[in-house]
Amino acid sequence: MSAYGPVVFVSRKDGADLSEEEQATVLRLVQDACLGLNLTDDHGDPVRPSNWGYDQDEKKALGILVYYSYAWADMPEEIKTDTAVGWTRYGARVARELEKQAPEVYAFTSYGLEV
């Protein structure tokens, strides 16, 4: 059974690569942002963002899996649509918090993926 979840992709606005050290810093910033925003998963538990990989789904971007859910596959289409919109909003909220920590340094995109 596949899991699905919202992934936040973070890249540098200047187009430079993210070093491993900077990737670790960005992951920590995302984890702190999610904690500060009190983001929860489908079960109401605090999310635990994890490293999804660098330069994979988005060029020169660190993918950070916010949380995953197994329920997606069984959802009716209209619920999937609402959930996907919610995942994008999660990403936008996290991006706003990161922008406060590092203004004008990072670019963001977010969407759901099969993980």
Summarize the structure.
The protein has 115 residues and is of the alpha+beta class.
Question: What does the largest sheet look like?
Answer: 4 strands, antiparallel
**What share of the residues does DSSP label as strand, in percent?**
15-25%
The ordered string of helix (H) and strand (E) elements is: EHEEHE
Number of domains: 1
Alpha-carbon Rg, integer: 14 Å
Which CATH architecture would you pick? 2-Layer Sandwich
How many helical stretches?
A: 2
**How does the overall form come out from the CA principal axes?**
globular
Question: Please, what is the oligomeric state?
Answer: single chain
Strands of the largest sheet, in order across it? 2-3-1-4
Question: Low-confidence stretches at least 5 residues in length (pLDDT < 50)?
Answer: none
**Helix content class:** 25-40%
Distance between the termini: 10 Å
Number of beta strands: 4
CATH hierarchy class name: Alpha Beta
Topology record:
Blueprint: E1 4-12, H1 20-36, E2 50-54, E3 61-65, H2 77-101, E4 106-114
Helix pairs in contact: 1-2
Task: Write up what this structure looks like.
This protein has 115 residues and is α+β, with helices and mostly antiparallel strands. The protein has a single domain (4-114), classed as Alpha-Beta Plaits (2-Layer Sandwich). It is 37% helix and 24% strand. The protein is built from two helices and four strands, in the order βαββαβ. The protein has helices at 20-36, 77-101; strands spanning 4-12, 50-54, 61-65, 106-114. It has a four-stranded antiparallel sheet with strand order 2-3-1-4, covered by helices on one side. Helix 1 crosses helix 2. It is globular.
